Amino acid sequence: MKFIFKFLFLSFSATVIAQNATSADVIQQSLQQKSQMMSTSLVKNIEFTNIGPTVMSGRVVDMAVNPDNTTEFYVGYASGGLWYTNNNGTTFTPVLDNFSTQNIGDIAVDWKSGTIWVGTGEKNSSRSSYAGIGMLKSTDKGKTWTNVGLPDSHHISRILINPNNTNEVVVGVIGHLYSSNDERGVFKTTDGGKTWTKSLFINKDTGIIDVAFAPENFNTMYAASWERERKAWNFDGDGSNSAIYKSTDAGNSWTKIADKSGFPTGNGVGRIGLAVFNENTVYAFHDSQFRRKDTKKKKTSNALTKEDFKTMSTDEFLKLTDKKLNTYLKTNGFQEKYRAENVKQMVRSGNVKPIDLAKYLEDANSMLFDTPVVGAEVFKTTNGGKSWKKTHDGYLDDLYYSYGYYFGEIRVDPQDENGIYVLGVPILKSKDGGKTFKSISRENVHADHQALWVNPKKQGHLIDGNDGGLNISYDDGENWIKLNAPAVGQFYAVYADNQKNYKVYGGLQDNGVWVANHNARIDKRWKQTGQNPYESLMGGDGMQVQVDDRNPNIVYTGYQFGNYFRIDREKGRNKYIQPKHSLGENPYRFNWQTPILLSKHNQDILYLGGNKLHRSLNKGDDWETISEDLTTGGKKGNVAYGTLTSISESPFQFGLLYTGSDDGLVYVSKNGGGSWTQISNSFPKNLWVSRVIASKFKKERVYVTLNGYRFDDFTPYVYVSDDYGQTWKSISSNIPTSSANVIKEDSANENVLYLGTDNGLYVSFDYGTSWDAFSKNLPNVAVHDLVIQPTAKHLIVGTHGRSLYKANIGAIQEFTKGIKKHNKTEIFTINSIRKRGSWGSSWSKWLEANTPELNIPFYANDTKKVIVDIFSDDTKVNSFSIDADKGFNEAIFDVSFSKKGLKAYKKANKDTDIKKAKNDVYYLPKGKYTVKIGEASSKFEVK
């Protein structure tokens, strides 16, 4: 297939600038702006309901446990906020929801005074490690919070409170993830956060990943520096500035102690974790990025390996027997069309080289997982850091794999110098000072361990935080209890199918793909029945979902880097459907969040984006590539880059396609991929295209959001075009500074748009000219995806830290229809309610009575008290007042008679017998009723 590429130099109304890290001042101003918007928002009374899930939880970063009452503790989640329990994890309460961020790096509590310190911004340097806004402090157990400084720190690793002075606090700051900055190092306050002193600073690219003090002496401290640089295409997690420092004056001054001490030095030094037993005895857990010694063994088998082809000449290749070559091809999963005879012909003709048989098995991710580094290693000093010695022989394989930067935590038992725990993909313990280790991971414990609390008074009592939530053990890790009550799932994507009782689907960070009915009960009932309402469909890092509109049992989904499957849920079958490059062609590059799309024009047609766009006409069984590379071509690094991130097809025309890439390019094809035109030349360069959306209301219209997170640029870039992308208009207007992840048109109202950012959700009623914060019951959390179920009129919000939320947007959809000036009260459609004989009663005297609720949605043109009157024909059966805010409101009516209303109704309907319910309330009988608020009215029915 021949592809034609065109490039348009487009007109554009906004100024294009280079990407720079957003300043802390801008962030603080934007947080104040959002707070003001929340108080004046027209939709501040339209509430969201969290619909779970809770079972798989999310990434824990730290715990703070009351040493005198271990059933009381706080848990910090990477992007899910701070939660409190005083019943050993039976239930949790969120205590940071009323503040500006849910992104946490570390927590510390002074239990004597009840003062809580939160260092914001996750300490792990992963793809979705969100930046924070500095140090937060609460002196009333989380009811109120104050930002006490370090606003440009972005990522805080550790907080130490002097046990004898609650106002003396030492903080380790890693600093920006994607850019250089000065506010990193060790900081100290002696006045409770009013002022801070930077006591250790290495350089603008090296921060502090860990700080620990001797339990018996706060003056003696150790700190670990970490030199790291993340780009969209590469992560470098080591450097010569990674080292260990010591302080003997409570963090006021520091001395580097790692040099010439037996601890590794040089460019291969990676992340370091510290565990201090006493002033002189310290363990250091090192992610060594030094290369392993070449210990290649002579081949004991005559079988071909991919390494053989990297140095093989054409003549040597052609001399291979067909049997030997076919064995290699079949063993390594080459497509059926590649067998010895035709592959040799391809080599003879020069279309393929022998090395291509090695490249065929590689992909953009192979380098990340094939790097032969030393990896995890444990060192110990018994003389205060004067000398260090490795505790074990050989390598600690299958602990870090290739991403040790993601872990790095080590703990020592305060009652046993030789009892240590190291955290990685599994969790390991040693009882001989690190000479030998054993795994204490178990079947109900998630992998990827991030935090561990070891009871200083009772050996064997552990609390473990991992990517799948929280676990407690009372027998030193032999058995664990799971404590996943909070809804803190980190969703990448969400989908809703078209069934009457529709289902919601979603892919989560490190927790696979799950599905449930949208109205599933999220409580502990499933622990009795044995069946959680959410069902797992796939493991790994769960990604996008598409469901066949004709058959909801056919689900397309997968895990990271484009590993997608077609699932037949009815038959219990999965088929792997990732497109494969041809022999001799460069391997396709697939994004961590590879996009897929089922065509609304034909549900047999599936699109999947690598660096090229692929199309299947038969549900993924076979693929054709319908573009050349639609990116800038990738960059050398250990992260797949130069990949597609978004695909959209116009509902008006089959083959009117748009693509967006992680390096800032947007393309359009009007002929099903026959030719492509680049339409992004006027945009800021190199930004991640988080969404490209073809409008459902106008064929020529298209929306684009760009995300600068990977430059620490948090500007919301939001655009619309009404001419297929030839010209663009910025519609970010009054959106507070926060990276844009997703834009969604309303399913019924052309003027209404929804926008998800890294700090919440917004709605526009005027096509993006202005925006309102949409946040009742929805914390300031990253919104990664949005989906509208049009029949139910529900907006489903996929958050990266607080699972899924649902709101009824029926009133919003009606708001601008026909009426442009909203200078009067308006009542929107009221759903009918079905009469139940159980109203006012329960099956047990020990349970509360079942009482109905009818939601009356209305719009008030001003903040005022309003009277809600309920009529049956001309008879007023009830009346009540509520305080209404300007904008959307919801009045809750219990479907009952007032005393006066009952008397009037009986007088008008003498033959009707109204019986009192068991709770002494008279409920309305079946019939049609009218609600009036001033001159506005709307009807509902009791069926």
**Strand arrangement, major sheet:** 1-49-48-47-46
Low-confidence spans: 9-17
The major pleated sheet works out as:
5 strands, mixed
Q: What average pLDDT do the residues reach?
A: 94
Over the alpha carbons, how many angstroms does the gyration radius reach? 30 Å
How many DSSP helices?
10
Shape: globular
Can you count the beta strands? Answer: 67
Q: How much helical structure, as a percent, in the residues?
A: under 10%
Question: From the helix content, strand content and strand pairing, which structural class follows?
Answer: mainly beta
Q: Which percent band covers the strand fraction?
A: 35-45%
Distance from N terminus to C terminus (CA atoms, Å) equals 60 Å
